[in-house]
Write a structure and sequence with these properties.
The chain is an alpha+beta fold and about 130 residues long. It contains one helix and seven strands; from the N terminus they run αβββββββ. Strands 4-3-6-7 form a four-stranded antiparallel sheet, with no helix packed on it. A hairpin with a 2-residue loop joins strand 1 and strand 2. It is flat. The termini are far apart. The N terminus is likely disordered.
């Protein structure tokens, strides 16, 4: 009888751990404007909560992305969030998972630096 109870508890614990790991992974966010961001992730939940504190206060239900990645099995989700404040740290949580943060861009013209990038410059064959 004790062995059966221990085995049952082990199954419940491993099921909970497995469920928690599927909440969200492969999380990516892209700043899409001064006051907007798009989140993409893989997981069982399509809900992202966000706000300027870890109390969040707002949430968005994501939709399936129009171009899902082929790197791994889904489901994949995409949420577009607009109406954010510039130069502000936001907290977010996907599907009740861990609290994370991201920051919106500085106000335009408020910084004294320049960012330059260069892509693959290619190669020639002689």
């Amino acid at each position: 009888m004790v062995l059966l109870i221990v085995a049952s508890l082990a199954i419940v614990a491993s099921t909970r751990a497995f469920t928690q790991t599927l909440v969200a992974d492969e999380i990516h966010w892209t700043i899409t404007g001064q006051t907007s961001v798009t989140f993409d992730w893989r997981g069982t939940s399509s809900v992202i909560r966000y706000g300027i504190t870890s109390g969040y206060g707002q949430e968005v239900t994501a939709t399936a992305p129009s171009h899902p990645p082929f790197s791994s099995a889904g489901p994949f989700w995409e949420a577009r969030i607009t109406g954010l404040e510039e130069n502000k740290v936001y907290h977010y949580s996907i599907g009740g998972g861990a609290d994370h943060t991201m920051k919106t861009p500085l106000r335009r013209g408020s910084s004294d630096f320049t960012v330059m990038t260069e892509g693959d410059i290619g190669e020639t064959v002689a």
